[in-house]
Amino acid sequence: MNLMILFQDEVHHFFKIRAMMYLWILLPVMTVFAHVFNSDTGMMSYALFMTSMTATIIGVVAGALIASSIINEKQQNVYIPFIIRPLKRRDLLLARYFAVCGSMFVTVLVAIVIGLIVDIISSGMSLNADMIHELVYGFTLCSTIIFFSGSIGLLLGVVNSSVYVALMIYLFFGLQSGNLMIYMFSWIDDYAGVSIWWHRSLLQLAIGLVLTIGTLWMSVKFFNKKQF
Amino acid sequence: MSKSYGENLVLDGISLNIASGSILGYVGPNGAGKTTTIKIMTGVLTDFEGEVNIHGHSMPREKYQISRHLGYMPQNVAFHDWRTVEQALGVFGRLSGLAGDSLQKRIDETLELVMLTEHRRKQVKELSGGMIQKLGLAQAILHQSKLLVLDEPFVGLDPPSRVQFKDIITQLNQQGVTVLFSSHVLSDVEDLAHSIAVLNKGNVVYSGTVDALRAQVATDYKIKFGISRDTKKWQNQPLPEGVDRIEPTQDDQLIVTFINEYDPYEITQRTIEFLLMAGCWIHSVTPVSPSLEELIYHYLEEDNQT
C-alpha cells in the first residue's frame, strides 16, 4: 500500500521533470529524423533498430538518474521523515526505481510504436507475424536493458556517498550493462539453439529478470543496513 | 541503550524514562549523544544494544505500531525540494494512514497552526530556513502523534516563531501529547520542560525537575540591588562580612555575591546597611536564581570531577 503511495508520488514528479520532457519530445523526433537521413538498417526492421538504439541510451539515463538522486537525497537527509513512518525502507528505493524505469520504459515504447508506423508506411505492408516477433524481441530487449541498468544505478546510489564517484563507476561499468544484455541475447540466438521465437524471448526475459532482481535485492540489503 | 560508532562509544548504557503527558528537555554538550539517543528512539538508527519501549511497544521490532503515534522532527530537517508544502504533507499524511477529507482537514489545521497556510503552494526550494523548520514541525504533528520527539526544534527560528513554536508545543502537551525535545538553548528548555535529562559523555548524569537540580547544585547565592543614586563610595570601603564581591551592571544595578557558608538573610540586611551608609539610594532588592545554564554547567563540572 505504502509502496503504491510512494510510487504514485514519484511518478507524479518524474513525468514532469525537465530530463523526461526532453526525452518525451526528443526520442520520437529522433526516430523520424533517423529514418529520413538513414533508412537503410540492413536486415533489421526499423522498429527494432530504434529499439536497440534508444533502449541503451535510456538505460544509461535511468541508471544515472537513480544513482545521482539517491545519493543527493541521502546527503540532504530527506529520507528521515519517511523512515519514521509505518513503511518498509525498501519501499523508498523500489518506488524510485519503478517510477524512473517505468517512465523511461513508456518513452521507449513510444519510440517503438513510431518505428513500427515508419516501417508500415515505408514498406507499404500491413502488420504481419514477422513484425510482431521483432516487436516482442524489441520489447524484451529494451525492458531488460532499462530495468537492469536502473538496478545497477540503484545499487551504486545506495553504496556510494559521492555523486561523482557513483557516476564515474556507473559510466565505466554500469554503461556496459546494456551492452552485456545485447551480447547475451545474441549468444542465446546464435548458440543456445532456441529456435521458437517466443521461447527465445521468454529466456531473455527470465535472464534479465534474475539479474535485475538479484541487483535490487543487494541494494535493499545495503539500504536496510544504512544508519541515517 | 548503548551505541558505538566503531571504537567511539557514544551512549554508554543510558536509561531514560519519560512520563506520559510530560515535556522532557534533553540537554547536554555538543557531541554528548543527544541526537543518537533520539534517532534510536524513533527507529532511524536500528543498530544499537538495549531496549526502547514506547507505550508498551518495542522499537525497532514493533516500529509499525509505534510510528502511527510517533511524530519526529529531526535536526536540520529536509524535504524533496520539488514538492510543494501541501504535497509534502499530503504524502506524509497518506503514509501515516490518513486519507481523503480527514487528510485534507488535518493538512489545513496543521498549516494554520504553524502559520504556513499562505505558503501552501510554494515549493520547498522557495521556503526560508525558518519555514522549513515549521514544515518539519507540521509533518511531525500532522497525524496527531501521542509522542512528539523534536531534535533542536528552535534552531534557525526568529524570536516570534520561537515563541509560536513554544506555544504549539505547550498546547499539544495540554491535549495529552508527550514531548521530548533536545536543545542547547537552555532558556527554551527552562520555559517548556517539566523535567530535564542531562547527558554527558554518553551517560545520563541527571534526570529530574529543574527545581530538584537547583537544590542539588551548590551555586553562589546572589542578590541584585536596584540603585537610583550610586555615590561609588562603597568601592573604597571594606565589604561586609559574608560578601564575596559586588559587581556594578550597566543598568544601574549592583550584583552582590555572598559566601555560601553565611546566612543569606543576615548578609542581605548587612549589605543594605552597607550601601545606605555609602550614600546609595536603593529601590529594589531581588534574589538572583542561577539560570539553568549555570546549574548544568556546575553540575557537569562536579560530575567531571567525580
Give the gist of this structure:
Chain A has nine helices and no strands.
What would you note in describing this structure?
The complex is a heterodimer of chains A (228) and B (306). Chain A has 228 residues and is mostly helical. Chain A contains 9 helices and no strands. Chain A has helices at residues 2-14, 18-37, 46-76, 80-83, 89-123, 129-159, 163-174, 176-190, 197-225. Chain A is globular and about 60 Å long. The two termini of chain A are 24 Å apart. Helix content of chain B is 36%, strand content 24%. Chain B is built from 10 helices and 14 strands. Chain B is elongated. The mean pLDDT of chain B is 90.
Itemize the secondary structure elements and their pairings.
The complex is a heterodimer of chains A (228) and B (306).
Chain A: H1 2-14, H2 18-37, H3 46-76, H4 80-83, H5 89-123, H6 129-159, H7 163-174, H8 176-190, H9 197-225
Helix pairs in contact in A: 1-5, 2-5, 3-5, 3-6, 3-7, 5-6, 5-9, 6-7, 6-8, 6-9, 8-9
Chain B: E1 3-5, E2 8-11, E3 23-27, H1 34-41, E4 52-54, E5 57-59, H2 63-67, E6 70-73, H3 85-95, H4 100-113, H5 129-141, E7 147-151, H6 159-174, E8 178-182, H7 186-192, E9 195-200, E10 203-208, H8 210-216, E11 221-229, E12 243-248, E13 253-258, H9 264-277, E14 281-288, H10 292-305
Parallel strand pairs in B: 3-8, 3-9, 6-7, 7-8
Antiparallel strand pairs in B: 1-2, 4-5, 9-10, 11-13, 11-14, 12-13
Helix pairs in contact in B: 3-4, 8-10
